[in-house]
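Onboarding guide, step 5: your first structure request.
Type a short instruction followed by the sequence, for example:

Predict the 3D structure of this protein.
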Amino acid sequence: MTILVALLSTSCSDFLGNKPKGIAIPRYYEDYALLLNGMDLGYYGENYMNYITDDVVMSDGDVPPGLKFTAAGEYEKNLYIFKEGEIFSQGMNDGFWSNSYSQIYVYNVVANNILDVPDGVESKKQAAWAEAVTCRALCYFHLVNTYAKHYDKNTAATDYGVPIIVSEDVSKSYVMNTVAEVYKLILDDLEKAAPMLPDVANNLYHPTKAAAYTLLARVHMFMGNYGDALKAAENARSLNRTGKLIDLKLYTAEEGMSSGRLVDADGNMYPFRGENPEDLMVRLGPNDFGSSIFVSDDLMAVYDTDLPAGAIDKRKELFYAKDRANTYQEMSFPGKTMYVAHINPNYGISYQELLLILAECEARSSESGSAERAMAYLDELRDMRIVGNTPLTASDNKDALKKVLDERRRETAMWGQTRYFDLRRLNTEPEFAKTVEHDLDGTKYSLPANDPRYIMPLPHNVREFNPDIPQYER
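The system replies with structure tokens like these:
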């Protein structure tokens, strides 16, 4: 047990300002199984990047004291006003970077040693290896899409990415790898690992074949490989054994409640993470933003787009409150809308995301894509979200894509880094490029499409321990 605790509690390299020494490597299969069951690994992802998006509103006006702009954290305020340069001040820790590389260290320990242990069934050892590299791929996908430029096939071979660490040897020196190199590692890992994973995992915190192929589809979609993304997503759907949608039409929201506030007619609470059938692989965030953030009119307007006459989008009804809310206490905020879902969004991989990827790639794929199939995937989702839904139609693939992206924004609002990642990738397409405008009680701030301020700065301690490491100017 001492070995396991040491592995999980140490950082992976001097990028984090801490080089662990004398770490012993586990010897037996069960040791590695325990590592992959570590509670810390179930928490991964961030949501502070939402403050730079078009979904969030901040104010010092008529809002509860704890929700005022002046009460926010320094990095939250810096992101909201699109501050140039540093986001975290000297001495502050960017927990997302450090947590990512700490988890990568654990996955490296498993991936590099599990196949050589003297005990254990070979198929289980291969599955453990596959889990480690799949989860490592998820970490690298999040890192490269936070601290580097969005993937561009014309420049990825020279754009700064993030350091690739695939060894548990913390005494090695590392370099800044390119965006292309990071994506190659991710693709290689997922393509090798996905077939080795189980159809059904012991619990939703572990990946299955369907989860890995969904992640592979996500990666290809972000690279603009829409045909490959569609194939991977179709593979994921065919292999899915557990993922299914929850019917939100059955739920209402109780006053005076936060956690557990959504209940069905029988009094059953909305499923917690780890029990939600919509999740293909669970990763919990630092918090769920419930009753702690205001959302933009721009986001709210999207919920009324493509809504049939007389229909009710239960996501808007259940997850948001206009002017007032009574979750953990009575609150008033005239003219504003608060996010009050309290459902702990999954920052990992979900069945809804799979449907949205299928729909987007059908709309985008010039060879085999179909606007009709794209709309069918959306309706599978919308039928479980909208009272009085009627089938969507699209005049062509371009119209279908617009509808898909609107649905994606509705469904994934406040899902960790999702909107932040989507703005970055969509800004590279002229028809979807957007200048984000923030208003702070009359003071206007603007973030043009493709602005370098979308790229998060490397943490202070990374640069202190690696003074020659290259980085983007923001």
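Each response can be followed by summary notes, for example: The two ends are 44 Å apart (CA to CA).
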